[in-house]
Write a structure and sequence with these properties.
576 residues; six-stranded mixed β-sheet; four-stranded parallel β-sheet; 20 helices; globular; binds FE2/S2 (inorganic) cluster; binds magnesium ion
């Protein structure tokens, strides 16, 4: 099926005219050693590569991009590699979230300003997936998202180690004095053994699964481990397929329908997804003009159980096991008619096509609906006078005894203040204390850092406790766990009610009732509000200044207001 002719391609405007400007483009392309035969009659495919020396999760992209190029050439396209911000979760401070929208803007503008007809987006480490996808959706050129793939299972003293999750778990043991420094160093070197993104069901694994379920990746691609040769073959297939997509004019607006977004949400819930999924999926859907709300997560969460028995929601397995058990396609098969059959993928075919024949090799790893890991979806949305615009908890990854909890707040205004509390073995508190960190949201953090799994204080660790109710306007790593209430909106820094909470106020958490309240009277809250002094702005120049002017709250996906599709007239094509 050909919907487009060569003359209709975008790149023709750069290359095909008999005028001075086209001549300059051609001449400077020949400067790189190309002949006209390399581009004439061919779509130009951008390969947006988030490789860098600071990005261990994408270390293989330097090599893998060659496979994508091979695929593009095989299918008669002209591949052009365009490097983009690599957003390393590992090195970037205070948080990659501060820069997600920067990569989204970069992606959109790279595609807009170059003679590009279609794109392969290479990402996977947490924010890179939503950022690349958001930018490419806004540009609306045919694209395929190429997931980096999870790294190999971690290994320490004959045991599997899961990225993040086990680091957090054993660090508590180290703080409790149960692990020596030598043992710890062995873990440090054993937990990340190969390139690829985190191999727990953290933000990276859930966001690549979400992108695939939305129809934006080749079927099955998101579960392939980075170090498996199937990943190289998949990369070549991406290159081949995107060229066809250009001719078919298979743009993202034809793929990302409300049905596709619902499928992405359903699959996310069944994976036991990272809490970060909420923010990113809302932002991605809204770029596609689909007004996804927090309540949609609750709606789908109530009827979609967690089926992927992968840490941190599951207890045993990791992404490598998930792949061997059949991968994301097997999970989709288990979901049966919960997936909307009307949605299509980058293949141009229905997402559900072929699921009936998909093998499932291990039903302990990828559970059937009759034997879920957790009976509801992994995320629950809370509302109440502490979070009028919502907050999020991941009940599948916390002890059920906290689902209904009442206790006194212990409030820290900043991370250094929190650190003093948690590191003091004699700080006064009881097991029912609710530890609170504020000013850690989109503006306050800034960048809404992953501080939300507040460390369990030493005063409780020495009593043998490893979990407690914690509340913040921060996010937490998708590999984290515990009774952590996150994404409180509006955040304290902009004057959300969390700013009015005082140490000693009683907090009531009711997960089945979807409620989070502070038991403080309206009159008292009004009095505190009148006394509240807004904090000093974090930035007076540069990107941070622009960020604080335009960032939206967590319940709206933390996009910049001016990148919303309805913000203004769409960008026109250039005049020349
Ligand atoms: Fe890159 Fe976890 S650090 S995915
Ligand atoms: Mg992470």
């Amino acid at each position: 099926m050909t919907a487009k002719t060569y003359e209709q391609l975008r790149s023709v405007r750069w290359f095909a005219h008999d005028d001075w400007r086209s001549s300059a483009h051609r001449s400077r392309t020949m400067q790189m050693g190309y002949d006209p035969v390399d581009w004439e009659g061919k779509p130009i495919i951008a390969i947006i590569n988030t490789w860098s020396d600071a990005q261990p999760c994408h270390a293989h992209f330097k090599d893998r991009v060659q496979f994508v190029k091979r695929g593009v050439l095989q299918a008669g396209g002209f591949p052009v590699e365009l490097p983009a911000l690599s957003l390393s979760e590992n090195w970037v401070k205070p948080s990659t979230m501060l820069y997600r929208n920067m990569l989204a803007m970069e992606t959109e503008e790279l595609l807009r300003s170059h003679p590009i007809d279609g794109a392969v987006l290479m990402g996977g480490c947490d924010k890179t997936t939503p950022a690349l996808v958001m930018g490419a959706i806004s540009m609306n050129l045919p694209f395929i998202f190429l997931p980096a793939g999870p790294m190999l299972r971690g290994n320490y003293a004959g045991q599997y180690l899961g990225s993040g999750t086990d680091m957090f778990k054993y660090w508590d043991e180290r703080r409790a004095g149960n692990i020596t420094k030598e043992q710890w160093l062995d873990m440090e070197s054993g937990i990340a053994r190969s390139y690829g993104h985190c191999m727990t069901m953290g933000t990276a694994s859930t966001m690549t699964a979400v992108a695939e379920a939305m129809g934006l990746s080749l079927p099955g691609s998101s579960s392939i481990p980075a170090a498996d040769s199937a990943h190289q073959r998949m990369s070549t297939q991406c290159g081949r397929r995107v060229v066809e997509m250009v001719w078919e004019d298979l743009t993202p607006e034809k793929i990302i329908t409300p049905a596709a977004v619902d499928n992405a949400l359903t699959v996310a819930m069944a994976t036991g997804c990272s809490t970060n999924t909420i923010i990113h999926l809302i932002a991605m859907a809204r770029r596609a003009k689909i007004p996804l709300e927090l309540d949609d997560f609750d709606r789908i969460g109530r009827t979609t159980p967690v089926l992927a028995n992968i840490r941190p929601s599951g207890t045993t397995y990791l992404m490598e096991d998930f792949f061997y058990a059949g991968g994301i396609r097997a999970l989709m098969k288990q979901l049966g008619d919960k997936l909307d059959p009307s949605a299509i993928t980058v293949t141009g075919r229905p997402l559900v096509e072929g699921l009936a024949e998909t093998p499932i090799y291990n039903e302990d790893v990828i559970r059937p609906l009759s034997n879920p890991v957790y009976h509801e979806g992994s995320l629950t949305v809370l509302k109440g006078n502490l979070c009028p615009d919502g907050a999020v908890i991941k009940p599948a990854a916390c002890d059920p005894k906290f689902y209904r909890h009442r206790g006194p707040a212990l409030v820290a205004d900043s991370y250094p203040e929190l650190k003093k509390i948690v590191d003091d073995p004699d700080y006064p508190m009881t097991p029912d204390t609710v530890l609170v960190l504020r000013n850690a949201g989109p503006q306050g953090g800034p960048g809404m850092p992953e501080w939300g799994m507040l460390p369990v204080p030493k005063a409780l660790l020495k009593l043998g406790l490893r979990d407690m109710v914690r509340i913040s306007d921060a996010r937490m790593s998708g590999t984290s766990y515990g009774a952590c209430v996150l994404h409180v909106a509006p955040e304290a820094y902009v004057g959300g009610p969390l700013a009015l909470l005082k140490t000693g106020d009683i907090i009531e958490l009711d997960v089945p009732g979807r409620r989070l309240e502070m038991l403080v009277s309206e009159e008292e809250l009004a009095r505190r509000r009148a006394e509240w002094v807004p904090p000093e702005p974090r930035y007076e120049r540069g990107y941070g200044f622009m960020y604080t002017k335009h960032i939206e709250q967590a319940d709206k996906g933390c996009d910049f207001d001016f990148l919303r599709t309805e913000f203004g007239r769409p960008n026109d094509e250039p005049v020349i």
